Give the backbone structure.
Amino acid sequence: MPIRLLLADDHAVVRQGLRMFLSLDDDFEIVGEAMNGNQAVQLARQLQPDVVLMDLLMPEMDGVTAIGIIRKELPDTEVIALTSVLEDNAVIGAIRAGAIGYLLKDTESDELTRAIKAAAMGQVQLSPKAAERLMREVRTPDSPEALTERETEVLRLLAKGKANKEIAQILTIGEKTVKTHVSNILSKLNVSSRTQAALYAVRIGLVESLSE
């Protein structure tokens, strides 16, 4: 089954370019386009895409707010934030809101496709420069609820960039069980995304760095 994508950007030329390029890959299916955050939320509810490519600076409702709503209502839909500036504080807000990662708009085409496919599998993948900035800016819970031994194992593998299927194979458990563990981890840590959970794993020394 192709990865179902929703494109959200207020610039028609950006959406057109993304559609033209991504449509060349049989692994992708563009199911909708949104020109503002409000429309992105409405279409996400209606279409339930696998991945949303979300611009951050849009009219009516900004991308960060839209990400938060989508992640809360549609936990199986992953969101990649798109931005033109790495230093934009909106990027930090996007990760807090639940985005699994972000891309700069000058990202190379092959890197874009890899990132989308990784997001669809629930993989946390951040560039070292991005991870370093996020480690400084994104707050992790000070007193989270204690994780079980199995949840800690899942968190460690998640922080190493493993997808649910890979985690299931390594721990010899079902993929649905992995999803349940991930959901419990996010709830106990009081975070909205795997990315935030992975950052917490680095901060407490569970792994040395993301995707190590």
Q: What stands out?
A: The longest strand covers residues 28-34.
